[in-house]
Amino acid sequence: MVSVSRLRVPRFALPIGWLAGLAVLSSCAVAVAQAPGGDFGPPGSGRGGVGGPGGPEREVLKDFDKDENGRLEGTELDAARAELKNAPQSGRGRGGMRGPGGPGGGPGGRGGGAAKVPGPKVSPKDVTNYPDAALFAQDVVRTVFIDFAVANWEEELELFHNTDVDVPARMTVDGKVYEGVGVHFRGASSYMMVPRGSKRSLNIAVDHTDPKARLYGQNTLNLLNANGDASFMSSLLYAKLAAPHIPVPKANFVEVVVNGESWGVFVNVEQFNKVFLREHWPEFEGEGARWKVMGSPRGTGGLDYRGEEFEPYRQRYEIKTKDREKDWEALVTLSKTLSETPIDQLERALKPMLDIDGALWFLALDVATANSDGYWTRASDYSLYRDPKGVFHIVPHDMNEAFKARHGGPGGAGGPGGPGGRPGGFGPPEVVGPDPDGPPGEPPREGRPGRGMRPRPADPSDAPPPQIAPPPPSAPPPPSAPGAVRGSIVPQDAESGPRRREGAGGLGSAGAASMTELDPLVGMGDLTKPLRSRLLQVPALRERYLANIRALGEEMSWEKIAPVVARLHAAIADRVARDTRKAFTTELFERDTSPEPTGTLRQFFEKRSKYLSGYIPKEMPKNDGGGRPEPTGANSPANTPARDPAEPARRPSGPPASGSN
Question: Which long-range contacts (CB under 8 A, 24 or more apart) does 365-368 make?
């Protein structure tokens, strides 16, 4: 039996009120207690009790693809549908997230929780076509028409969610019809926390039926619902800031019409695939190894060394290309080099295997934008590319949870998310130490990108290792280091009991310090994220990183960002106003994007830019001689870099030369 008092329940962002949040979490606890063996899956009325992230992706194709063409159609799809209805996946209710009262209830309805009303009817003849504009051009808003053969398409996509089956549809863009595309709901919290009737993120396989089919050169569309981002702009602004420095997925806005009804504005984000590689590293013609570092509130994909066996790495890094032993060996070598090489030898050891300059920009962007899904806090939701010359490159992935002064939601002792910040996302669990009343293990993680989540295999030990020693290869690490604003560790001692995360929520909680003053040297004692805690121990690399931080501070000035926000607002404001399926109210959208001093984005950029532009480290961890960081309160001049007021030369917009740092 699961102990409700010790149950690790994800904290949902509930602007509708603290009491509603308590009610939902209480119902979740009761449901889990009734079904202790179930995996977490999107809540619903089906089997599996309370939802959450679903189980492993269910393989359906192999049982029903009789003609072996890699997809289900006609009677194959009918048979698979009947089977799934009769035997739904363990831990997965039917109907996505359905709070009390059915569709539209529960925490997913951040715009007020009421059932959504249908959007306006739209046909291809009603819209403007842009056949000469690039797919990700930000000066146009295309309309993507999706027509399913069934009227209850939401239920159809829910039924096949977290399986290897795409639902066939017809897509029309700029007057051109694409027959036989494949569609599925994608995402983790952006699916799990959104009720039926509200927009959920979509993945469209343009080449589902025709392997040669492309939409302006792309074979995949990622249409995101901007979960946790009432401005709809986070991904676009992040991409704009990152593009001059590192390869980053492009993003723009589209309007989506399903079966003739407008479902409003979606964020169209570029896929990390061979098309992306060819653009940024044309000399390699798309070859090389790609990994997706799986998203999780307690992600452990921080490139820390976990022994020589591949399995702990396979659990954390999902390879998206041919599974080759040499690529896993290279990943293990990179992790071991980052974790164990003495600091005074680290830069030289990494040069042949890591694009150091790109990594420093990635780390700077991650913290400068206060990305709450970032490496600095969750060690997840980013991508890895190993080019044919053996050099690893770090690529941003999830960019929709940045630029928030506070990451709200009910958190810690402070209760619900406080006013003034945009509602937060899928917060981390409370208890970090071992749970004496339940089996060891970790919260679920996202599985195959876009198809849901699967539980991470339990590690033998659930106790975090000491911060001053490397973690055992199979042990789950503490989620963050002392000094982190969100998700920091309260040190354990004889009186304080088990380690706990500080609240990630509202004003008054332990972790509620403003993200506008998030320290660029956060997490320097966290050995589970050696790309930060050890790379930045190298004085010359730390100088370059801090120069990047100050450069971003200048680039993030409101004077430079305001025209971009105004242009993006003008492009979608009318569409947002008539969008009946959005998760937030129009008032929240206008508040976030307002040019007035009360505007949420304006407040963030003004404060964050000022803080970063003038940042001087107050203290740095010392080295223990073995290359391991040891937190200290001393402000050692030897370890504190002098501020360089000169802005560094920016990296060219093109890709770095292979093997360069």
Answer: 365/238, 365/241, 365/242, 365/245, 365/246, 365/396, 365/552, 366/396, 367/518, 367/520, 367/522, 367/549, 368/241, 368/520, 368/549, 368/552, 368/553, 368/556, 368/608, 368/612
Cβ distance 262 to 255 under 8 Å? yes
Indicate the range of 77-91, 404-418, 609-623 predicted with least confidence. Answer: 404-418
Pair 358, 350: CB distance under 8 Å? no
Q: d(Cα 195, Cα 95) in Å, to the nearest integer?
A: 8
Q: Which residues pair with 266 in a beta bridge?
A: 254
Written as one letter, the residue type at 304 is D
Cβ atoms of 528 and 304 closer than 8 Å: yes
At 28 the pLDDT is: 39
Answer whether residue 646 shows pLDDT above 70: no
DSSP output for 504-545: -SSTTSTT---GGG--TTTTTT-TT-HHHHTGGGSHHHHHHH
For the whole model, what pTM was predicted?
0.73
Sheet holding 317-319, edge to edge: 317-319, 289-293, 382-386, 392-396
Indicate the SS3 state at residue 195.
strand
The answer to whether 293 and 316 have CB atoms below 8 angstroms apart is yes
Q: Residue 356, SS3?
A: helix
Task: Output the pLDDT for position 513.
Answer: 57
pLDDT at 384 exceeding the cut of 70:
yes
Paired residues of 354 in beta bridges: 392
- Minimal CA–CA distance to 427: which of 324, 534, 509, 498? 509
User: CA-to-CA distance for 164 and 62, rounded, in angstroms?
Assistant: 9
Question: Which pair of tokens denotes residue 536?
Answer: 């930045």
- Number of Cβ within 10 Å of residue 126's Cβ equals 11
Name the one residue in this structure whose structure tokens are 């207690």: 33
Q: Each residue of 512-543: pLDDT tens digit?
A: 458 999 999 999 999 999 999 999 999 999 99
Distance CA 451, CA 186 (A): 5
- Sign of the Cα torsion 324, 325, 326, 329 reads positive
Residue from 575, 593, 578 nearest 255 by CA: 575
Strands 142-147 and 251-258: parallel
HSE (side-chain half, CA atoms, 13 Å) at 263? 24
Contacts of 152 (CB under 8 A, 6+ apart): none
Residue with tokens 């004692």, as numbered in its chain = 525
How many other C-beta atoms are found inside a 10 Å radius of the C-beta of residue 573?
14
Count the Cβ atoms, other than its own, within 10 Å of residue 355.
26
Q: How confident is the model at residue 152 (pLDDT cuts 50, 70, 90)?
A: very high
How many CB atoms are closer than 10 A to CB 4? 14
> How far is Cα 453 from Cα 426, in angstroms, rounded to an integer?
13
Q: Are 50 and 98 in contact (CB under 8 A)?
A: no
